[in-house]
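tokens incoming
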């Protein structure tokens, strides 16, 4: 302490005092954040426990009691709106504060309370859309801002998506919100490690750090989420739209990445045959099969100067020329790269899976009846 005073008096300790002052200000900010976060986090945990325990009990009472008895609501409209405002305010901080992002209260409210909320439909959906809007904005910042994407807490983000997925299963009406569709596209961008075209064009002259590859559990939740949204929205959200509305999705490396990380897992999810799983539409099946067949029916050139040549046409209306020059996204040029064996393997597996998916879709529509044993096999 004496040495510090001597340095300050002599003028040589000014940098030290500035660092000390900056550290004190940082400690004050962290303390203020902690004081703001802790009571709200505790309240969300308490509400989550309350809803998780009482919601099933109220359903049992509703079935057991006569119709003349009125079952009270778990939370009134004012409480639902207030809780949504609390989650909204914490999510605004979560983009820049890892501690807030990992708050147990937000996670539990998203997964245990939000899907079970009942009461006034207008108030409940308004609260859900408010939270959905903030989550969409948060993912947008993670995708388009490299400085934020370097330290993403994937587990917390996966839990947020899981909560919205459960809410979508309980309330399909929220699928009509543009924020939900935008959120799914942002999540797909994270899975295939690509930023939106708008973000790339705006910052074309700025160096972009490569996006980190998300862990498998996050990608699995994104596939579940997007498949459910496609099932609910039908023609308003398709697999083709998530892939950029083109059968030719880009260079061989990008095509393989989209096949392995998006199209194949989605086909497996849509064709699982489980009663609670979403079903594939005819448009999604046609797009998946067309994408796989375009690659399978393309032969690498014998000379490096030539482009890959398609051997046959599956559909004359496909938006792919006979000379298959892959389009490089965001750069406006074409690539003459050879198709690697791994892409052929992925396309062949996808074609086999797409055939099974098409049979399931036909059976669901009662168009195909498995009488012929050969077709059934």
């Amino acid at each position: 302490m004496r040495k510090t005073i001597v340095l300050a008096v002599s003028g040589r300790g000014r940098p030290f005092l500035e660092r000390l002052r900056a550290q004190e200000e940082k400690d004050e900010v962290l303390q203020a954040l902690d004081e703001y976060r802790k009571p709200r986090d505790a309240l969300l945990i308490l509400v989550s426990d309350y809803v998780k325990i009482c919601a099933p009990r109220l359903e049992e009472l509703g079935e057991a009691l006569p119709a003349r008895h009125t079952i009270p609501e778990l939370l009134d409209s004012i409480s639902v709106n207030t809780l949504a405002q609390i989650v909204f305010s914490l999510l605004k901080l979560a983009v820049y504060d890892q501690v807030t992002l990992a708050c147990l209260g937000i996670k539990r409210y998203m997964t245990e309370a939000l899907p079970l909320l009942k009461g006034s439909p207008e108030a409940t959906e308004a609260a859900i859309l408010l939270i959905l809007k903030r989550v969409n904005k948060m993912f947008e910042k993670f995708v388009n801002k490299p400085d934020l994407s370097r330290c993403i807490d994937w587990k917390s983000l996966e839990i947020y998506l899981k909560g919205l997925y459960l809410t979508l299963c309980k309330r399909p009406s929220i699928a009509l919100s543009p924020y939900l569709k935008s959120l799914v596209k942002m999540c797909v961008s994270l899975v295939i490690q690509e930023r939106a075209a708008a973000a790339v064009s705006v910052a074309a002259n700025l160096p972009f750090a490569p996006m980190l590859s998300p862990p498998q559990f996050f990608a699995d939740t994104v596939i579940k989420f997007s498949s459910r949204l496609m099932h609910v929205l039908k023609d308003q959200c398709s697999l083709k739209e998530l892939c950029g509305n083109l059968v030719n999705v880009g260079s061989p490396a990008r095509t393989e990445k989209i096949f392995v990380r998006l199209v194949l897992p989605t086909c497996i999810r849509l064709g699982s045959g489980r009663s609670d799983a979403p079903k594939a539409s005819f448009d999604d099946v046609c797009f998946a099969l067309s994408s796989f067949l375009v690659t399978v029916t393309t032969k690498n050139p014998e000379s490096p100067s030539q482009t890959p040549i398609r051997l046959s046409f599956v559909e004359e209306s496909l938006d792919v020329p006979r000379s298959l020059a892959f389009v490089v996204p965001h750069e406006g040029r074409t690539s003459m790269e050879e198709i690697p064996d791994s892409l052929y393997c992925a396309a062949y597996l996808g074609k086999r899976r797409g055939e099974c998916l098409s049979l399931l879709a036909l059976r669901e529509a009662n168009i195909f009846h498995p009488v012929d044993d050969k077709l059934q096999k």
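note: DSSP finds 16 helices and four strands in the chain.
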